[in-house]
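hey m, so remember when u said the C-alpha cells were messed up on ur end? i reran from scratch. heres the input so u can diff it against urs
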Amino acid sequence: MLQFLGFVGFGLWPLAAVSLVPLWLALERPGTGASAAARLGLVFGLVACAGGYTWLWQLVDVFLGGNVVLGAALWLAHALWFALRFALQAAAWSVLRRRGAPPALAGVAPLVALEWLYPALFPYAMGTALAERAALVQIADLGGPLLLTALAALLNVAAFEGVRAWRARRRPAAGALALAGFALLASLGYGALRIRQLERTLADAPPLRVGLVQANLAVLEKRREASRVHRDYLEETRALLAGGELDLVVWPETVWTRGIQGPFPVSGEIVRQDLRVPLLFGAATVQVEAGRSERYNSALLIGADGVIHGAYDKNLLIPLAERLPLGPLLGPLGRFLPHAQSFRAAREVPPLSLGPWRISTPICYEAVSPAFVRRMVRTARPHLLVSLANDGWFGDSQEPGIHLALARLRAVEHRRYLVRATNSGISAVVDPTGRVVVRTGLLTREHARATVRMLDGRSFYERWGDWPGALAALLAVLPFARRTRRQAGG
C-alpha cells in the first residue's frame, strides 16, 4: 500500500521514502532465496497495481462498451506485467545480498536499472512521487526520473537501516545514513540554486501570451456531435479573447474530428472562422501515401495568415485505443473494442513554427515518456513545449492529476515552459522549475491565460539522457564480475 499511496495522485509523497522498507525487511528473513523473494516481490507489485491503477476501470464502460470480462482480463494482464518488475527487483536484492552487497547497492541499483530497461505500457518511475516538490525535483534536469528514483531509493535505504538497527538494539549503519543524507542535502541545495538561476533567466526571456480553452467534452462527444463541439470551442475562445489580446490560443487533442486533408500547406479558415489569433489544436489528418489514405492523430498550427503550414503526427500510439498491436493477429479483437480507432504512427518529430519560435507538441500519452520527449527536444530544439491531451476517458479519477504530474517533469528536464491543453481537465501552464503557473479544474468548462517565456539552451539530461540507468545496471553486475575474477584467480 505504501508504494501506491506515496505515488503522485494520492498526495502522500513522503511515503515514497519508506515504501520499500517492508518488502526489504521481508526479504532479509533467513532462508529467503531468490525464488521466494520473487514471489514476495510479485505480491508487492500486485498490491501496488491494485491500488495505483484503479482509474483503469473507468475504461470498461466508455472504451470497452461495458465488457467487464474483457476489462478484467486486460487489467489482470497489465497487473501481472507491472508486478513482474518488482519480482525481478526482489530476486536481484536476494542474490546481491547473498554475495555480500550492502543494502544501498542491493536496493538502489536493481530498482533504477529495471526502471530503465523494463518495457511498460505506462512508464513508471518511483521517483516521480517527488514531482510536486519543487525543491527536490530540480535534479531531473541532470538525470530525469531515474535520478529521482535513486534519491527516493536511498531514503528508503536509510529508513531500512534505521528499522533494522532499532530491532537489533544497535546503532544504524553510519555509511548508509551519511549517503542518504548527503544525497538529500545535495538535491535540496541544487534545487535552490537552480530555481534562483532560472528566475533570473526568465526575467530576460522573450514573452508569449498564451490562452487555453477547455470545453469539458464528454468522452465520445467529439465524434458524435462534431459541429456542436467546434461551436463550443469557438464560443469559449471568443470569451477568452474578450479578456485581452493573446499571441497563441491552444485547443486540446483531436478537437477537430472531421479530418484535414494533406498535403500541407492548407487553409485553416474553416477551423478558426472569425478568430484572428494563431491557433494550435489537435485534429485527425489524412494523407495519401502509396495510393492509400492514412489517418494520423496530429497537432496543427493555424498561423496569423490563416494557413496550416505543417503538422506534427503522433508517434506513440496507445495499444488497443489508437492501434491494434500485432496487426492482423489481433484483428478479431477489434469487435470487442467499439471505440478504438485506427491511426498510423509517424516517425518524425518536427516542430510547429510560430514566427521565429519552434514549438514541440507531444500528444497525450507521449508526454509521459521522458525518452520520447527528450528525442523531440534534441531533434527540434523547441522554445516551448505544448502537450495536447484527452483524459475524458478517465472521468473523475486520479488519472488526470497523475498525467499532469508526469508531464510537469518534462518542463524540468528540458527547462522549458510546458502548456498542457485537455478536453476535460486538468489543463495547465507549467514553468521550467515544474511549478504550475495556472491550471483549470477537472470536468469544467473554462479558459485560462498565462505569459510564458521562450527559452533555448540544452540541459544535462537532454545531452546525456538516462545515464543513471546505465550506471545502475553496471553497479548491479559488479558483484558478479568480482566473484568471477576471484574464482578465476583461485
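this time it looks ok to me. The chain has two domains: 2-201+466-489, 207-454. if urs says something different then somethings off w ur setup not the seq
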